[in-house]
Amino acid sequence: MKQPSGFAERIMYILLVPAMFISLYLIFIWSPIEKQMGASQKIFYFHVSTAWVAFLAFFVVGFYCIMTLKKPTESRFIKAGISAEIGVVFTTITLLTGMIWGKSAWNTWWTWEPRLVTVLILLFIYIAYLFVRKMEGSWEKIAKLSAVFGIIGCINVPIVFMAIRWWNTKLHPVVFGEGKNQSGGGVEPDMLVTLLFCIATITLLYVFLMWKGIEIEKMRLTVRKAKSKVIEKLAS
User: Fold this and answer.
1) Cα–Cα distance measured from residue 207 to residue 30, given in angstroms and rounded to the nearest whole number
2) Membrane-spanning regions, if any (predicted)?
């Protein structure tokens, strides 16, 4: 992912801020209230959007992990780590909003339902991935070892997505289609417009966070290298 120029970064920021306000307007004012769940259904827009971005973040991690196994570079190592950190944050938000949804829809904060369990496993895998990245030793070896965890987590993403279709659960709703044949289900047109706009906004937020995270991490790396050189000179 190429770092943006100062102008491009400002443009993204200018687009992101109003997009967030528009999303809030669409969610709480423009979109209709669902008949059965009422106003509590509106958390659905945050839940689905953050879940999508979490999956996107982990696919990015998987891509850079595969590239790292082929040829480790500091740039690939940094990008995979930043995307994983963002993915863990958004996965946590997904679980929290899902629990709020579950309390309103199922009258329970948690149930051992296939989608919830697979998302929880996905979160644990990437927390382990981030811990492995903090191990001491040659960064090339750590990059390759952590890449294995990153790829395993990426493989788990399609399992999370297909869980409610493969096991045909009756609790978790299928947004686009219903059942194994993907027939029926879906959302109302106005709700769909709001959902798609929210997904686009959170995706833009992910891109912005990635760019800023990579920039900060590269600055830290430059400082560490400069500090090491100073220590070597003083020691000699």
Assistant:
1) 26
2) 12-31, 43-65, 77-102, 114-132, 144-167, 191-211
Are the C-beta atoms of 102 and 113 separated by less than 8 Å? no
Give the total residue count for the chain: 236
Classify residue 229 as exposed, middle or buried by CB count within 10 Å of its CB (0-12, 13-18, 19+): exposed
Packing angle between helix 114-133 and helix 43-70, nearest 10 degrees? 40
Return the residue matching tokens 């687009």.
15
- Per-residue confidence band for 227, with pLDDT thresholds at 50, 70 and 90: confident
Q: What is the pLDDT of residue 22?
A: 95
Instruction: Please compute the mean of the pLDDT values over residues 144-161 and round it to a whole number.
Output: 89
The pair of three-digit structure tokens given for residue 50, joined into one six-digit string: 């953050």
Coil, strand or helix: which one is 167? coil
Q: Which one-letter amino acid corresponds to residue 176?
A: F
